[in-house]
Amino acid sequence: MTRPEAIQQIRDSAKAIALQMMKIHPALPHLQDAETMSDCLKSLHEMTVHLETVKKKIGKLERQDDSTLL
Predict the structure, then answer these.
(1) At what angle do helices 3-24 and 34-67 cross, to 10 degrees?
(2) Considering the entire predicted model, what is its pTM?
(3) How many CB atoms lie within 10 A of CB 4?
(4) Distance CA 66, CA 58 (A)
(5) How far apart are CA 69 and CA 49, in angstroms?
(6) How far apart are CA 19 and CA 59, in angstroms?
(7) Predicted confidence band at 67 (pLDDT cuts at 50, 70, 90)?
(8) Tens digit of pLDDT for each residue in 2-27?
(9) 41 Cβ contact list (under 8 Å, min separation 6)
C-alpha cells in the first residue's frame, strides 16, 4: 500500500465512523436516563475530538507530500 492509498483508506474510514456516530446522538434521549445520556454525549464528544485529530494529522502529512512536488 502506498502512502496516498493509506491516507485515502484512513480518510474513508474516519468518514464512516463519523457517520455512524451521528446516528447515536438522536437515539440517546429515548434511553430515558439522564446520566447515561450525559455520559454518552461526553464520550461521543471525546471520540469526535480524537477522530478530528487523526484527520488533521493525515491532512498535514498529505500537504507535506504535495509540497515536495513543487
Answers:
(1) 160
(2) 0.79
(3) 10
(4) 12
(5) 31
(6) 19
(7) low
(8) 999 999 999 999 999 999 999 999 99
(9) 25, 28
Instruction: Write out the DSSP string of 39-56.
Output: HHHHHHHHHHHHHHHHHH
Return the closest-CA partner of residue 12 out of 49, 47, 58, 44: 58
Q: What span, in angstroms and rounded, lies between the C-alpha atoms of 61 and 45? A: 25
Query: In this predicted model, what pLDDT tens digit does every residue of 28-63 receive, in sequence order?
Result: 999 999 999 999 999 999 999 999 999 999 999 988
Cell output for 48: 469526535
| Alpha carbons 30 and 11: distance in angstroms, whole number | 31
The grid cell for 15 is: 468518514
- The answer to whether the CB of 3 falls within 8 A of the CB of 23 is no
